């Protein structure tokens, strides 16, 4: 494969409005594999875009309105009415598939998860989507540090501004967590509905990522419905997959079931 071809592919993908905010590193990685498989530039551009859709684009239910959302967040935070602020966070989360699915049971979701963990003072949220907007529901000590990673530059910019408005310590960062897992050490790492996306980029990406993260506790979840809303025995499927993935590891694993997803709490 010529270097020129991969540069052309990256340029073409970044030109489309749907993918212009995606981290270049990831496009290059996926594009390189697609070019090696297909050798035809036009087809490789198309299949790279398809893959980006499957691992990220498909989860946006509507075009994000970041500027408008930030104004509303600022306004409701300033009002001092925490319920109103949470309502705004929930409304924003309803625009991304994974957070939307979780919305109905947020209090229960975090109280059950955190009651199974010691006090947590730092969190990394990898492939976070809009999930940091759930921080107001998490029973965390004040000054807990939060680090969030995803592949969209505009989303990450929005999350940094959200964290600033909410006085959350930490940052959000654009990162392909598969090629460059964060090196930071935290008490807890969240990988919510993430492993199936990573495994679409690379087989065996799931275990590789779990091993690479520098956290004693991991919360790993799997969706229980397809994006189209069908259940198709997904709980059974992902339970089997996760057990197989971790069978050679000497990790303590606890399983929690929610309406929105299947959760595993891993102690490394
Ligand atoms: C199914 S969504 C889950 C979002 C969030 N964790 C949640 O549960 O609400 C998958 C997320 O993974 C992100 N993603 C996919 N591949 C990634 C990668 N290689 N590095 C970082 N983020 C990635 C996507 O952009 C998307 O936001």
Describe the 3D structure.
- The chain has 268 residues and is an alpha/beta fold.
- The chain folds into two domains: 3-55, Helicase, Ruva Protein, domain 3; 99-267, Vaccinia Virus protein VP39 (Rossmann fold).
- It is 47% helix and 18% strand.
- The chain contains eleven helices and seven strands.
- It has a seven-stranded mixed beta sheet, sandwiched between helices.
- Strand 6 (252-257) and strand 7 form a beta hairpin.
- Helix 1 (3-15) packs across helix 2 (24-38), helix 4 (66-79) packs antiparallel against helix 5 (82-93) and helix 4 packs parallel to helix 8.
- It starts with a helix and ends with a strand.
- The model has no long low-confidence stretch (mean pLDDT 96).
- S-adenosylmethionine (SAM) is lined by residues 26, 55-56, 59, 98-99, 127-129, 131, 149-151, 176-178, 192-194, 197, 201.
For this entry, give a set of tags.
single chain; 268 residues; alpha/beta; Helicase, Ruva Protein, domain 3; Rossmann fold; 2 domains; seven-stranded mixed sheet; 11 helices; 47% helix; globular; binds S-adenosylmethionine
């Amino acid at each position: 494969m010529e270097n020129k071809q991969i540069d052309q592919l990256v340029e073409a993908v970044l030109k489309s409005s749907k993918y212009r905010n995606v981290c270049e590193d990831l496009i290059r990685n996926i594009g390189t594999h697609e070019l090696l498989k297909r050798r035809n530039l036009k087809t490789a551009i198309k299949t790279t875009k398809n893959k980006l859709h499957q691992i990220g684009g498909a989860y946006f239910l509507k075009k994000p309105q970041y500027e408008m959302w930030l104004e509303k967040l600022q306004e409701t935070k300033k009002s001092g009415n925490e319920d109103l602020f949470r309502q705004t966070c929930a409304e924003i989360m309803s625009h991304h598939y994974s957070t939307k699915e979780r919305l109905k049971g947020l209090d229960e979701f975090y109280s059950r998860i955190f009651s199974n963990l010691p006090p947590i003072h730092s969190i990394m949220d990898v492939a976070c989507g809009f999930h940091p907007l759930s921080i107001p529901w998490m029973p965390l000590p004040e000054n807990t540090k939060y680090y969030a990673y995803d592949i969209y530059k505009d989303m990450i910019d929005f999350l940094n501004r959200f964290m600033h408005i909410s006085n959350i310590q930490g940052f959000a960062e654009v990162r392909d967590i598969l090629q460059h897992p964060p090196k930071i050490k935290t008490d807890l790492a969240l990988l919510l509905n993430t492993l199936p996306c990573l495994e679409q980029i690379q087989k065996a990406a799931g275990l590789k990522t779990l091993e690479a993260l520098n956290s004693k506790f991991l919360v790993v979840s799997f969706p229980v419905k397809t994006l189209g809303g069908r259940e198709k025995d997904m709980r059974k499927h992902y339970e089997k997959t996760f057990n197989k993935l971790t069978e050679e590891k000497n990790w303590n694993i606890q399983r929690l079931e929610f309406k929105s997803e299947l959760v595993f709490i891993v102690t490394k």
